[in-house]
Design a protein that fits this description.
The chain has 204 residues and is of the alpha+beta class. 24% of the residues lie in helices and 26% in strands. The strands form 2 sheets. It has a 6-stranded antiparallel beta sheet. A 3-stranded antiparallel beta sheet has the order 6-5-8, with no helix packed on it. α2 packs across α4.
């Protein structure tokens, strides 16, 4: 699988995606009759950060999305699309090629897969690793759950707080405890692509 021109977002498309997330987040907050202060207190996100997200000025990281979902009492997928009704004991979601909710951040471009189905035990992403270098204190993530990443194209470098950095190429993979600080950096000549599975913390 390779990264195509269709996968690359223009600045206009990025703003549109941020606006869609902003509108959904604000709608969920207002449904509860909450102020930004109340939503921020429930989720552990500062009012200034929440205001910027709701105004489409910044793209929240996955960690922040998890905190917002937990604070609002919804599945993380519901921050992007309304939850699909449960269908008894059987649930199914199919994602066609080129579809999926896109979430762009300075470090990664995530395509949420099968996001129409809420309350999943894991969140699957197809992600482009954009950052080629980071400052020592930049880009770290830490949250409950576990993660599995399979490199589809290019090469990435995995950084964790307890281990030396390791480079992985197409066909390589890693599995980590997400409570350990971690980040992924592009180690190839071009943008690298991975399949990213993150288990949903019980609290969310």
């Amino acid at each position: 699988m390779t990264i195509t021109e269709d996968d690359k977002l223009s600045s206009t498309q990025v703003r549109e995606r941020q606006s869609a997330l902003a509108g959904r987040l604000k709608s969920l907050r207002l449904q509860r009759g909450w102020t930004q202060g109340q939503a921020g207190e429930a989720s552990g996100v500062s009012v200034s950060a929440l205001s910027k997200i709701e105004n489409g000025l910044v793209s929240p990281t996955y960690d922040v999305l998890l905190r917002l979902a937990h604070g609002l009492g919804v599945d993380i997928a519901e921050l992007f699309v309304p939850a699909q009704a449960h269908m008894g004991a059987g649930r199914r979601s199919i994602e066609r090629a080129g579809q999926g909710e896109l979430h762009d951040t300075p470090l990664y471009r995530h395509q949420l897969l099968c996001s129409q189905l809420a309350h999943k035990s894991m969140m699957p992403f197809r992600s482009v690793i954009k950052a080629f270098s980071l400052a020592p204190d930049e880009g770290w993530s830490r949250h409950d759950g576990e993660e599995f990443v399979y490199v589809l194209a290019g090469a990435v470098e995995l950084h964790t707080e307890y281990y030396q950095p390791v480079t992985l190429s197409a066909g390589d993979c890693f599995y980590i405890d997400s409570r350990m600080r971690h980040r992924v950096v592009n180690a190839g000549a071009h943008e690298s692509e991975v399949l990213w599975l993150s288990t949903t913390p019980v609290e969310a």
